[in-house]
Amino acid sequence: MCGIAGLYSDTRTDLEIRGGKMLSVLTHRGPDSGGTARKKSWWFGHRRLSIIDLSDEAGQPMQTADGRFLLVYNGEIYNFMELRAELEKRGAFFRTRSDTEVLLTGLAMDGTAFIPKLCGMFAFAFFDSAAERVILARDRFGIKPLYYWQEAREIAFASEIKALLASGLLQPTAEPSAVKDYLVRGLTDAREETFFRRVKQLPPGSLARIEHGRLSLRHWYDWPVPDPEEDAAEWCLKLRDLLRSSVAGHMVADVDVGSCLSGGIDSSGIVCLMAGIDGSGHRRRHSFSVNFDFPGCSERKFQETVADRAMTDPHYLTFDSSEACDMLPRVVFHQDEPFHSLSMLAQWKVMEAARKQRVVVLLDGQGADELFAGYPSFYVDTLASELRRFRWLRALIEAHSISSLHGERTLTLLRRALRKLFPLKRKKIRNRSPLNEGYFSKAVSELPPPVYYSDPLFAGVSQAMCRTSLPCLLRYEDRNSMAHSIEARVPYLDHRVVEHVFRAPAGVFVKGGVTKWGLREALKGEIPEPVRRRNDKMGFVAPDAHWLTGGLKDLMLSLLDEALKIDIFEQEKINLMAAELRQGQISPFLFRTCCFALWKRIFKVSM
Questions:
Q1: Residues 138-156: pLDDT tens digits?
Q2: 232-367+473-532: what fold?
């Protein structure tokens, strides 16, 4: 809902000036109002996008009546009314209807012990003037961003990296580990390190305690331990109830609330549950969809089916390569860091259209693919999980079902599952990326799993949610939405839903070759059957191949020319990539290389 920033220095006298520059680049995150506060050696700033309690009294920085405690906060606490009632029983008095005041009061009364009570998305800084201590905290799954920089006895934090750069305290220099993760492995947002040296993100579910310029980190949230329930039918019924409750909580706002609608199971579930909560569609909410007139790039028939069922006011969007060419630099600027594909532009278009309709909050289905095992990689994880339990026949039957639906041979699937259980040492594969390995002084270490799960399926889910998939998707959604002063909410990432999934009995993730089986069962009767039974997967896609070899070709070639001047690339490989592009062929590293070159130019990054 907002943008936050802060500075600490016990020697500088220009914190207000530097802080003002930080806030000026966060205006898009909070166009409605802004505020600042100076507390001893600290400066705090806030830009507000008004969502709940639109009055000026609910603005930030917000302080307790005695002035001891101060809060700057970005996010939404969906159970704030329940928490408020609990605090009132303990003698708390509230002057606003905002979740901000509930968070401030709870932290003032209980300290960090209040954080696990929160259900929502958040990143905040809480200042105790008596102890001259700041607590930075981030929600369980990293839905809302928080970045920080520290050097000697100076610290800066902000919702976006560009705000840290605007402070003038650091120069934009590339971080080798992040660059290599991206260009070689295609990973972003998987580590604390960002693409900018010395700029780190506060890990999800963590808090930082800052006292007298010293910062210490610890996790406040521990990932759930798998504890499977016995009955799959009861588990699915409870999942449905939890999803309804989550969607209802995510709809609470004093502004218009709409939804993204790709036409897949995840977003369709959100849209239809919203309609049921509104009363069978008596209130027509806006839904936003993107399609392109290319094979595999349109889900219009599914979108229309869902929009008719939920009685939404649908908006069907499209754009061409010329518009994409104009959009790309703006998207890179707002993302702060490089990204993976042109599908980002489709999401950008949705947010832009929503703002034009004066819709300020959008619900989206982000996180369901990772949580409910919706990617093809989970087929092998499922088989490995069955083999680990010595359920050989069940594994064979499941492998045959997957093979029948998706084409890969049964024995090949089983071999891959066995290799996951008993990994073999493999010969080092020659790195075919355009990266000049000699530029880096040392190899980048492998990414350990966030928490160890012996079951391959739960291990795969946690890896997707913490490392390989969800972290970057959450960054994309936050920046694309906030660039247009839109708050994006993700009901599938309610921690009560996530923790319920880790109690899933065997067979509810992938069953009969069908992914997200448990979610499909939970949504039976809620979404149209043609959508619920879909086995293809798309999402907000863009016609990357058509555009990169067509309307975006000249831009890509110019960016490859820029890449030739960057020391980390091998010129021979860049020239080969350009030659292939001129012939209508696309290297798998093309977009990453070009996006990196564009990012380096926009942020004037030195290597």
A1: 999 999 999 999 998 899 9
A2: Rossmann fold (3.40.50)
